[in-house]
From TrEMBL:
Gene3D superfamilies: 3.40.190.290, Winged helix-like DNA-binding domain superfamily/Winged helix DNA-binding domain (1.10.10.10). This is LysR family transcriptional regulator. Residues 1-41 form the HTH lysR-type domain. One of its GO terms (molecular function) is sequence-specific DNA binding. GO terms for biological process: DNA-templated transcription. Keywords: DNA-binding, Transcription, Transcription regulation. Belongs to the LysR transcriptional regulatory family. InterPro entries: LysR-type_TF_proteobact-type (IPR058163), LysR_HTH_N (IPR000847), LysR_subst-bd (IPR005119), WH-like_DNA-bd_sf (IPR036388), WH_DNA-bd_sf (IPR036390). PANTHER family: HTH-TYPE TRANSCRIPTIONAL REGULATOR, TRANSCRIPTIONAL REGULATORY PROTEIN.
């Protein structure tokens, strides 16, 4: 309820009141409220399926109307995970806005575990495949997550002697990774994550990165951060987690000039020939950045891996 209120720009009691009014209007209970939160009833599940169809149809109506619009001017809505939006896409904006002054780019960010809910979104970037058959999927890039820390952290807490010791250090972690994303991780990485006891958890990639830069924690981050923040330290524990970044859009969107320009621009800024850190094969941060790498090859945990 709180997350829905935040996304809609209203307070939580307003969401609850509107939901109760909807239940009274249709004469059926849609959710049950318990100690563990809110769950859809059987009727709620069936109606939610219809609602998703309504959202998709509403988006189709706008796209059909927009097919006649070949203008280079106007709004393009992009949804992306907050980390990649803040620390890569925003970094690449100067060239795009200079070349396309008439395009109004709207960027909405997803916190960890969220999925795009805007049916009118033109382009979606996310870490999980989409189940919508009407969208064009593209494997845009691979993000390689590795442990990062800072000199301030090492000066205060010392350097770990191995992965076993690192798990005893002050660790930061992102909350609510979707099951699909977690399942894409190597089995050892999944098992190690379950052994973590983080001293900081957050749903914001930005908060996590600033905690690392301030010297508060060790945390996993995508290798491109080494290019953006070369003052970070790559703590090489022989632990790399590859995660795919997918791009989705409706095929009709390419007929709209301004949307096509955004799609082409995204292809450019994730081009693996120019930006090797987005390749499927891992490229160590020291190969494309002046970042310091601290190699640690001590004791490694032997987690029980469930296949």
């Amino acid at each position: 309820m709180s997350k829905a209120a935040r996304l809609l720009g209203v307070v939580q009691p307003t969401v609850s009141r509107r939901l109760e009014q909807l239940e009274m209007r249709i004469g059926a209970r849609l959710v049950t409220r318990g100690a563990e939160g809110v769950e859809l009833t059987d009727v709620g599940e069936r109606i939610w399926t219809l609602v998703q169809t309504m959202q998709s149809t509403a988006g189709d109506i706008e796209r059909v109307a927009g097919q006649a619009d070949q203008a280079e001017a106007g709004r393009v809505r992009l949804t992306a995970p907050d980390g990649i939006a803040s620390y890569w896409i925003a970094q690449q904006l100067p060239g795009f806005v200079e070349a396309n002054p008439a395009i109004k780019l709207e960027i909405s960010t997803l916190q960890a575990g969220e999925k795009p809910i805007d049916p009118y979104c033109d382009v979606m970037l996310q870490y999980t495949p989409s189940k919508r058959m009407d969208l064009v999927p593209k494997d845009l890039a691979t993000l390689h997550f590795v442990p990062f820390t800072s000199q301030a952290y090492l000066d205060t807490y010392g350097r770990p002697e191995g992965l076993v010791d690192a798990l005893k250090h002050r660790l930061g972690d992102l909350e609510s990774y979707e099951e699909e994303t977690r399942d894409a991780w190597p089995s050892e990485a999944q098992a190690i994550k379950k052994m973590m006891k983080p001293s900081l958890t957050t749903d914001s990639s930005s908060v996590l990165l600033e905690a690392v830069r301030s010297g508060s924690v060790i945390a996993m981050g995508p290798t491109y951060l080494a290019r953006v923040f070369p003052e970070l330290i790559h703590l090489d524990l022989d632990l790399v987690i590859p995660v795919k970044l997918w791009m989705f859009y409706h095929p009709d969107q390419r007929r709209i000039t301004r949307v096509r320009k955004v799609l082409d621009w995204l292809d450019e800024i994730f081009d693996t020939a120019r930006y090797p850190w987005f390749r499927k094969d891992f490229v160590a941060p020291r190969e494309f950045s002046d970042i310091e790498t601290v190699h640690v090859r001590g004791e490694r945990p032997k987690p029980r891996i469930v296949k």
